[in-house]
């Protein structure tokens, strides 16, 4: 007779309630007394239906209830019957997939020289030599047309301006927004804009323009002066903090039409998460702060080693606990790493690909070359055609076949794969020379962080479930 | 479900799927049946909404005769229409036809 065993899930607790995070469906169920007892019974062993019923009846449960629970757990795939191993299949998305987002690198030039920069630093993969450094208005318009034409069925599309330093080519940003608005309206679509900047070149005129046009702004900044100026320096080595601080204060005061975000790069030298968060929210006035460890080969002096990552996770956890306290009182907390993960957990996102790069999202270089995303523009790796000739469908198909979670053998037994799916293609390329390689150096970190967020999600679900309503609508990328 | 409580949106979808897949006598007693997708399935042998009324009892979602016939004979019925043998020789016959009402012109010709 076939025996029951555990299916694939991650069990966690939050607010005194026990939960299951099912893999790969990413469904979250709360357990009650009997379903918890039944799963406990199957821990590290297999039992037949009769054995399960007998053992639980001894503990005082009714037969009908036990059988009902057995069926429910089996139907939800929390427990499995027999061998039942299913070879994962490659299910590439239907082509052509409509575009949602284009990241436009309006220039590959920058007025800063951050040592860790993936575009200019020691681990750069771009080879822009001989190509144009600033995107022309003509290429920018073609990019807008490309986005609008390649997004059939989508009413809302997104254009992100990026660099280099984006504001070095503000002229093109401005004219492109005007052109894109008109063009989108003609086609009955809505186009949304955002940009990333180092804030060094912000002026009152630019800030007014961004506010009037509802452009979402993310500022790259690494915290207070001593940490920001460690790596974020001008070509002459002078730190950028004193230049950007007053400009950022003006930005967050004047630009109220969209939340203003800060994006922090963590390194071995700059990893004081809580201190940086306090400074950027309370002193600088940012609405949201997101952190990401630097992308680098492991030999660099600023690379964060394993113990460093543990330290970062501890601090992330402390800050996440603070987010929880705020959430229980329905207050806003700007730690966007938690917010973004809770959003995915609430939706039950189960990713076939780590991100939309090469699928719904593309990067466009100043020359018009198309790359997987903004991190791959001007690089031979991840090149996917040109704006004038369209997407190279063959290269795209190869990327999608190789990057699919079911081809990443290392990930097949990991419970965090619905949210991770192997991790960033660029990170993988810098570390392993292969975009489709799983980012094995981050596995413990991803599982640790997902567990923290699940516990917080569970506690909110138990103690203030209405808070989660805000995650009902899927946020557009 | 009585012993598992759906918490996130995906869990609610799993729950709806289980209810529609495995049926549930409790569901009949408790409120309206779950919403299912409407596939107009017509055939000469069985009464199926699609010819006379749609699944909601109205006439807004009635089938489209041309592609309706083709697909019904192909998938759900033994009716001897001239459709290729999709089990053995022409499994990809309709692979370019994702939506019958829109893409039926893309169905391949077959030359045995």
Please characterize this protein's 3D structure.
The complex is a heterodimer of chains A (477) and B (112). Chain A is of the alpha/beta class. In chain A, strands 11-10-9-8-7-6-12-13-14-15 form a ten-stranded mixed beta sheet. Chain A has a three-stranded antiparallel beta sheet with strand order 2-3-4. In chain A, strands 1-5 form a two-stranded antiparallel sheet. Chain A folds into two domains: 78 residues, Outer Surface Protein A, domain 3 (Alpha-Beta Complex); 284 residues, Aldolase class I (TIM Barrel), CATH 3.20.20. Helix content of chain A is 38%, strand content 15%. The mean pLDDT of chain A is 93. In chain A, helix 2 packs across helix 3 and helix 4 runs parallel beside helix 5. Chain B is an all-alpha fold and 112 residues long. Chain B has two domains: 36 residues, no CATH class; 52 residues, no CATH class. Helices cover 31% and strands 3% of the residues of chain B. The longest helix of chain B is centred in the N-terminal third of the chain and has 14 residues. The radius of gyration of chain B is 18 Å and the shape is elongated. The relative contact order of chain B is 0.09. At the A-B interface, strand 3, strand 4, helix 3, helix 11 and helix 15 of A face strand 1 and helix 1 of B. Strand 4 of chain A pairs antiparallel with strand 1 of chain B.
Summarize this structure briefly.
The complex is a heterodimer of chains A (477) and B (112). By secondary structure, chain A is α/β, with parallel strands linked by helices. In chain A, 38% of the residues lie in helices and 15% in strands.
């Amino acid at each position: 007779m076939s025996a029951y065993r555990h299916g694939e899930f991650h069990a966690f607790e939050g607010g005194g309630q026990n939960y299951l995070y099912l893999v790969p469906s990413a469904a979250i169920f709360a357990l009650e007394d009997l379903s918890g007892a039944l799963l406990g019974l199957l821990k590290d062993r297999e039992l037949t239906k009769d054995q399960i019923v007998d053992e639980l009846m001894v503990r005082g449960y009714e037969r009908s209830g036990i059988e009902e629970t057995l069926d429910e757990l089996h139907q939800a795939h929390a427990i499995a019957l027999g061998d039942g191993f299913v070879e994962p299949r490659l299910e590439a998305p239907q082509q052509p997939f409509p575009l949602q987002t284009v990241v436009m690198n309006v220039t590959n030039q920058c007025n800063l020289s951050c040592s860790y920069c993936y575009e200019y630093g020691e681990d750069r993969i771009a080879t822009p030599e001989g190509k144009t450094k600033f995107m022309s208005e003509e290429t920018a318009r073609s990019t807008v047309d490309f986005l609008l034409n390649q997004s059939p069925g989508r009413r809302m599309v997104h254009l992100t301006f990026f660099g280099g330093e984006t504001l070095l080519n503000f002229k093109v940003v401005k004219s492109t927004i005007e052109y894109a608005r008109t063009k989108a309206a003609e086609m009955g679509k809505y186009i949304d804009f955002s940009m990333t900047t180092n804030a060094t070149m912000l002026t009152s005129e630019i800030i007014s323009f961004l506010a009037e046009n509802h452009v979402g702004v993310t500022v790259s900044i690494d915290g207070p002066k001593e940490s920001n100026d460690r790596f974020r320096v001008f070509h002459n080595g002078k730190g950028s903090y004193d230049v950007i601080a007053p400009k950022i204060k003006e930005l967050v005061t004047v630009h109220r039409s969209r939340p203003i975000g800060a994006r922090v790069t963590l390194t071995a030298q700059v990893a004081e998460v809580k201190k940086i968060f306090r400074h950027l929210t309370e002193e600088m006035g940012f609405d949201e702060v997101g952190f990401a460890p630097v992308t680098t080969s492991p030999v660099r002096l600023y690379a964060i080693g394993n113990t460093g990552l543990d330290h970062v996770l501890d601090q992330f956890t402390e800050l996440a606990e603070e987010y929880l306290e705020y959430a229980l009182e329905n207050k806003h907390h700007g730690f966007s790493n938690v917010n973004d993960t809770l959003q995915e957990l609430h939706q039950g996102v189960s990713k076939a690909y780590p991100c939309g790069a090469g699928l719904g999202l593309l990067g466009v270089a100043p020359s018009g070359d198309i790359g997987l995303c903004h991190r791959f523009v001007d690089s031979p790796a991840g090149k996917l055609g040109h704006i004038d000739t369209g997407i190279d469908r063959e290269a795209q198909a190869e990327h999608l076949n190789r990057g699919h979670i079911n081809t990443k053998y290392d990930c097949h037994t990991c419970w965090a794969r619905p949210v991770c799916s192997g991790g960033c293609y660029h990170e993988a390329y810098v570390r392993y020379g292969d975009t489709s390689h799983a980012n094995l150096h981050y596995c413990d970190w991803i599982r640790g962080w997902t567990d923290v967020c699940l516990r917080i999600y569970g506690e909110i679900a138990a103690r203030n479930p209405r808070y989660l309503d805000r995650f009902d609508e899927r946020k557009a990328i | 479900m009585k012993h598992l409580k759906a918490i996130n949106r995906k869990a609610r979808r799993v729950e709806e799927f289980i209810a529609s897949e495995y049926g549930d006598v409790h569901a009949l007693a408790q409120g309206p049946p779950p919403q299912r997708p409407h596939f107009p399935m017509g055939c000469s042998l069985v009464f199926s909404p699609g010819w006379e009324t749609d699944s909601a009892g109205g006439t807004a979602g009635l089938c489209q005769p041309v592609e309706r016939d083709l697909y019904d004979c192909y998938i759900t019925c033994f009716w001897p229409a001239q459709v290729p043998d999709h089990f053995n020789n022409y499994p990809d016959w309709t692979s370019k036809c994702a939506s019958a009402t829109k893409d039926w012109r893309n169905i391949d010709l077959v030359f045995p």
